[in-house]
Write a structure and sequence with these properties.
Rossmann fold; eight-stranded mixed beta sheet; 8 strands; 26% strand
Length: 194
């Protein structure tokens, strides 16, 4: 793996050993950041299920103001910290080693806001997509800055819903076995009340 563009272009990244973490491919990261290019400079970026940190580090390399990495797996955390250290990145980020649900709660209490949110849970943990997108479209929607985008990387064969609460899918990009679903918050969405 390597950084595609920006101040850290062509620098290599470590990946955690084993198959538990599946880093976003260079090609898919390039596609993602081509779409995000007009929004990345100065953005607050939330990297959920960060793994090695490749996506969040790419965001920093391309000019994001800050990145919040959320990762709980010990081997992935070790790779993430190694990558940040090896690249000389000492500021502009924070690592939260709790679960994604707990991290979203902590961030909400700190009144954090993010312009871009990326999530890439393990592909076999399909329930995590529903939970995380449900939180971001519901009780954790306050974390989304006006005009924010939420992007989920998933298996191409796994079809995510078009709507999760206030989140409405606006775009679907497919590449190889992977897909990227882009969601925007519908500020006028009113949830059903039973």
């Amino acid at each position: 793996m390597r950084i595609i563009a920006g101040s850290l272009r062509s620098r290599t990244l470590e990946a955690p050993p084993g198959l538990a973490t599946r880093p976003t491919s260079d090609r898919l990261r390039e596609t993602l950041f081509n779409v995000l290019a007009p929004r990345i400079q100065g953005a607050a970026f939330l990297d959920l299920y960060a793994g090695s940190g490749a996506v969040g580090i790419e965001a920093l390399s391309r000019g994001a103001a800050r990145v919040e990495f959320v990762e709980q797996a010990p081997k992935a955390l070790e790779a993430l910290r190694t990558n940040l250290d090896k690249l000389g990145i000492s500021s502009g980020f924070h690592i939260d080693s709790s679960s994604v649900a707990a991290a979203l709660k902590h961030l909400g209490k700190r009144n954090e806001r993010f312009d871009l949110v990326f999530l890439d849970p393990p592909w076999d943990a399909t329930a995590q997509y529903v939970v995380t997108l449900g939180l971001l479209g519901g009780s954790a929607a306050g974390l989304l800055a006006p005009g924010a985008l939420v992007i989920a990387e998933h298996r191409r064969k796994v079809r995510l819903e078009d709507r999760y609460g206030a989140l409405q899918r606006t775009r679907l990009l497919e590449q190889g076995d992977a897909a990227l679903s882009f969601y925007a918050a519908d500020r006028f969405f009113v949830p059903d009340v039973d």
